[in-house]
Every structure is written in structure tokens, then in C-alpha cells.
Design a protein that fits this description.
Helices cover 73% and strands 0% of the residues. α1 runs parallel beside α3 (59-82) and α2 packs antiparallel against α3 (59-82). The N and C termini lie far apart (61 Å). The chain has 88 residues and is an all-alpha fold. The radius of gyration is 17 Å and the shape is elongated. The chain has one domain (13-82). It has helices at residues 13-34, 37-54, 59-82.
Length: 88
């Protein structure tokens, strides 16, 4: 058993930006369901993928953002076609 304390790991700037990008991606995906899904949601999925590449620390949040982006894309396109709204 080791008596030496483990050093505290601090979150760096890249981790913070990656978390913010993932949260922005989730927000943009939710907005894209109601407003032009083919324009907003691919951009949001791209943001989530960039966030996933930036930091492995927020792996669960970025995977949630990518999965939610795909689900919102399907839902948004379905809503746009059914309600006869513009897709682009």
C-alpha cells in the first residue's frame, strides 16, 4: 500500500472548451428539430465530433451529443416532411 497521495488532476482549457462545444452541440440539435434540420444538425454533429477529438475527459457527454444529434436529425427531418416545412 502506498502512502503517497495521488496528485489532483485539473481540467485544462481544452477540456473546458470540449465540454462547452458538446453542450452547444446538444442545444443546436434540439433547435434543429423545429427549425431547418438539414442546415443545423450536421453542423451540431460536427461540433460534437470535434469536442470528442479534443478531450477524452468528456467522453460520455460527447457521445451523448453525437447520439442525440443523430436522433434529432431523424426526428427533425420527419417533422419537416410531415408538416411541409422547408428542410434547408
Amino acid at each position: 500500500m502506498s502512502a503517497q497521495p495521488q496528485p489532483a488532476t485539473r481540467e485544462g482549457p481544452a477540456d473546458t472548451i470540449a465540454g462547452l462545444l458538446a453542450a452547444l452541440s446538444i442545444f443546436a440539435s434540439a433547435i434543429g428539430v423545429a427549425y431547418r434540420p438539414a442546415r443545423l444538425i450536421p453542423f451540431a454533429i460536427g461540433l460534437a465530433l470535434v469536442a470528442a477529438a479534443m478531450s477524452p475527459r468528456h467522453r460520455r457527454l460527447t457521445s451523448l451529443a453525437v447520439g442525440l444529434g443523430g436522433l434529432c436529425f431523424l426526428l427533425g427531418m420527419t417533422v419537416a416532411v410531415i408538416t411541409d416545412n422547408p428542410i434547408f
